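Subject: mismatched residue count in predicted assembly?

I count 312 residues in my input, but I want to confirm that the predicted structure covers every chain. Input:
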Amino acid sequence: MTSKASGRDTALVEAFAKHDVAADQALGFWLYLMSDLVLFAAFFATYAVLGHNYAGGPTGRDLFHLPYTFGETILLLLGSATFGMVVLSMHQGKREGVLTWLLVTFLLGCGFIAMEMHEFRSMILEGNGPGRSAFLSSFFTLVGTHGLHVTSGLTWMAVMIGQVIIKGLTLPVRSRLMRLGMFWHFLDVVWVAVFTIVYLMGAV
Amino acid sequence: MRQATRDDTGASRGSYTSYAIGFLLSVVLTAVAFGAVMSGLLSRPAALLSIFAAAIAQILVHLRYFLHMDASSAARWNVLAMVFTVLIMLLFVGGTLWIMYNLNYRMM
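Triage response: the counts match. Full output below for your records.
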């Protein structure tokens, strides 16, 4: 994603012109997302098997605060909508719009990560860390892996803000922004499964 | 209703309206799911059914309005790859639950 040499982009622009590279990259990235989905399926299966082994410790009902999770969800959904604005500004060639909406999406993502960190921290401080029970081990693995993905997305977004400022909206930069958008929307889809299976089912 | 058009980056884009519809539907479906559990009005099976129906609907909304999956030929390979992945996931999760439940039952 991060090209150091400015000459590399010139070569890329030529390659893009000769062949529909961007379409291949979009499909290739989609295939990566699908393999990532299989990784999440493994963690969901683990959680489904271990999720009721509380070892005398707290259950989901004791630990989860649903209005808090609802807040986290709204931050992610807003982030998907504002990334839509990034893509729309990009297609209109509005560099300022792209930068503004990227920054808004970045801050919303940071808000989500801050809320998740706060939740994890208070659980661990109360002695309910990943070592407490099989339920909590699988909980931290599943929800933490999603959180790590969001953190990677935020890092990528910070790099793209830099690339838009330095390189401008060249074809390779636009193609990368489209793939970052796929990643960002994909994480929302995974989160829908997380809040349904972990938080809501845990509290029913 | 075909809002997705393809451009030189090889990916499809939405429109202001499609992102707005997607966002509003997502918020409504999230509120329905949380409401079904938090209100405490529904029985356990009814609540479970509601949250799963809302989750599946919301995933479809995300695929349609945010990831722009449709029946167009340009999206065919994406859809095909996803259908295959969903099959693998069903085998994966379903098989795990089946075999672990069975083991648990037999070791009682």
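The two ends of chain B are 56 Å apart (CA to CA). Marking this ticket as 'not a bug'.
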